Amino acid sequence: MTSFEEAETEETVTCLHLTFYHPGQDEKMMFRCLNFCKREQVRADDTAKFGRDSSVCRYNLVDTRVSRIQFSLQFYRKLHTLEYGFEIKNLSKKTKLTVNQTELGHLNKIDLPWKCIICFGDYQILAEIQEGESVDYFETHLHLAEAPILQERCLPSLQPIPENGISPSFFLSQGKSPTEIDENEL
To answer: What span, in angstroms and rounded, lies between the C-alpha atoms of 23 and 39?
Structure first.
């Protein structure tokens, strides 16, 4: 047998993808302490805290309007299953936190949906959970959005979609105008 055949089976790791947006991010640079370059391992028994106090928070937001500890994420295994999840808790006494449409006051907590938008103040964070099997740690992968997350995800198209399913804007973006053709020419 080769060493490849004898190697231990590699287990997948749960990864929490977080995409951050703030309308003043270019001028105020409140995300300058976050590592957007690579995935970061977090021990399963650690609580991932977000806020302005760098001595307490693993993920530091450089903004005086952010609470010392804004919110936390706790990794856990769901009861009687092999599934893992995250619990989000609002730790700010002054600012409410919303997860999708659910508003959390101070010390309120809920399970983080597999894909959701977390908001507080002018901050928008898209959270997406990529499932894994590891019980010892999870990973975070931070991203920076250039456009507001809420507008990108939630606004419906204002143009009606024709019966053929091809939007007129498709032709305009191609530099062509729609033309009528006979069915027999296809």
So the answer is: 25
